[in-house]
């Protein structure tokens, strides 16, 4: 492994020996996480799995379970959309928004949404309400093609209205007077429902695709996203060096990709431009947030520059922003450690066998931010 990458992991508290053993497949975690689809028969799904245990440090409504480590894409519940393969540390970013406690219809923005696992969790967390709107934004058309497949697989019949836009997350929704900078609507659950009602199909044919494009164009023309329409909640799982996602690195190495860590090295060497992008994403997400709203900024990086330092820079120029304590209100505390900025959380990657209680999955960082005047009874941390 490149010495820059090794030095980075060592600085982040990941020892060289256990790291190499993990990447060489000498050690593996004892568990993996799954999340159940609430619109399916969850009892039936659980009965088909071996030794599924609920994750005690997250609310039960998140439907996260730990199972013995195994491949899940061959399981029937995965194939039919009854369960998601999703790291619990990653799901913690959505859980931190506490959407299951919301009592009135809300608007939620997922600013870097693909591949849409977190967006699906957002929608699932609002399943108890009707009239909610969830908007996902991503700059990559290829990623959105994947995201649309995930949304179609898991969110059929969901209570929320769901829209996906191809747009720059640093400027979304763009200036109202510049049509050329307008986002491109690539999926809308209302248009999808119309097409499904018109023609149940296994594979979308050319005629159906044409009708879909027409409906999306009509929706964009009648109700384009406006800078004046703010959101109650915003999630920004920002582009990062992905160095905390060690399972992905391991899979690439097992597949014979000798350059598995090259992209991590390159992004770490060009970290200044990456952190500039992250700060722009965080700033624009906050600009889209209503007063009194909540935002979660997260990455799957272990780098302080991409995590706490981005938040520090943001807070220094936003006096109406405060770090809010993350409280999942679950039966046990999360397997996280405090970040270097008070109120932030870090999940260190799990590299070997461990107990379920201490299993955290991939490396992850999250910070919850509120907008507006700080209340005296709130436990928040301003810029430090």
UniProtKB/TrEMBL annotation:
Binding site residues for S-adenosyl-L-methionine: 138, 168, 237
Full protein name: SAM-dependent MTase RsmB/NOP-type domain-containing protein
MF terms (GO), sorted A to Z: RNA binding; RNA methyltransferase activity
Keywords on record: Methyltransferase, RNA-binding, S-adenosyl-L-methionine, Transferase
Domain SAM-dependent MTase RsmB/NOP-type: 1-372
InterPro entries the UniProt entry points to: MeTrfase_RsmB-F_NOP2_cat, MeTrfase_RsmB-F_NOP2_dom, RCMT, SAM-dependent_MTases_sf
SUPFAM superfamilies per the UniProt record, alphabetical: S-adenosyl-L-methionine-dependent methyltransferases
UniProt record similarity statement: Belongs to the class I-like SAM-binding methyltransferase superfamily. RsmB/NOP family.
Alphabetized Pfam families for the sequence: Methyltr_RsmB-F
Lineage, opening ranks: Eukaryota, Sar, Stramenopiles, Ochrophyta, Bolidophyceae
Matches recorded under PROSITE patterns: SAM_MT_RSMB_NOP (PS51686)
Basic and acidic residues biased stretches: 193-202
Positions with biased composition (Basic residues): 203-214
UniProt record, GO biological process: RNA methylation
Region: Disordered, residue numbers: 193-226
Residues the record marks as active site: 300 (nucleophile)
């Amino acid at each position: 492994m490149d010495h820059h990458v090794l030095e980075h992991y060592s600085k982040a508290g990941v020892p060289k020996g256990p790291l190499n053993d993990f990447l060489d497949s000498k050690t593996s975690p004892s568990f993996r996480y799954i999340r159940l689809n609430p619109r399916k028969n969850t009892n039936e799904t659980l009965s088909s799995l071996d030794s599924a245990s609920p994750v005690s440090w997250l609310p039960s409504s998140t439907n996260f379970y730990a199972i013995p480590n195994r491949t899940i894409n061959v399981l029937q519940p995965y194939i039919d959309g009854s369960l998601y393969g999703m790291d619990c540390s990653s799901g913690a970013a959505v859980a931190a928004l506490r959407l299951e406690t919301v009592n009135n219809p809300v608007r939620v923005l997922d600013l870097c949404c693909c591949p849409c696992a977190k967006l699906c969790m957002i929608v699932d967390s609002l399943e108890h309400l009707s009239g909610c709107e969830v908007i996902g934004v991503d700059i990559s058309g290829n990623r959105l093609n994947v995201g649309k497949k995930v949304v179609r697989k898991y969110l059929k019949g969901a209570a929320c209205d769901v829209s996906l836009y191809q747009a720059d997350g640093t400027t979304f929704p763009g200036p109202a007077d510049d049509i050329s900078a307008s986002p491109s609507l690539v999926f809308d659950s209302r248009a999808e429902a119309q097409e499904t009602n018109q023609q149940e199909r296994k594979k979308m044919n050319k005629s159906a695709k044409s009708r879909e494009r027409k409906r999306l164009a009509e929706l964009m023309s009648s109700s384009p996203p406006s800078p004046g329409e703010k959101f109650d909640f915003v999630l920004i799982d920002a582009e990062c060096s992905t160095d905390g996602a060690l399972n992905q690195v391991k899979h690439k190495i097992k597949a014979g990709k000798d350059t598995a860590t090259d992209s991590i090295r390159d992004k770490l060497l060009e970290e200044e431009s990456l952190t500039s992008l992250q700060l722009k994403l965080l700033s624009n997400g906050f600009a889209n947030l209503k007063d009194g709203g909540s935002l979660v900024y997260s990455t799957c990086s272990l780098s302080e520059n991409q995590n706490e330092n981005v938040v520090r820079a943001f807070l220094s120029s936003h006096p109406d922003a405060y770090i809010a304590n993350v409280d999942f209100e679950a039966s046990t505390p999360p397997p996280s450690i405090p970040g270097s900025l008070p109120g932030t959380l870090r999940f260190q990657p799990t590299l070997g066998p461990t107990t379920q209680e201490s299993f955290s999955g991939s490396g992850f960082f999250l910070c919850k931010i509120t907008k507006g005047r700080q209340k005296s009874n709130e436990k928040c941390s301003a810029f430090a």
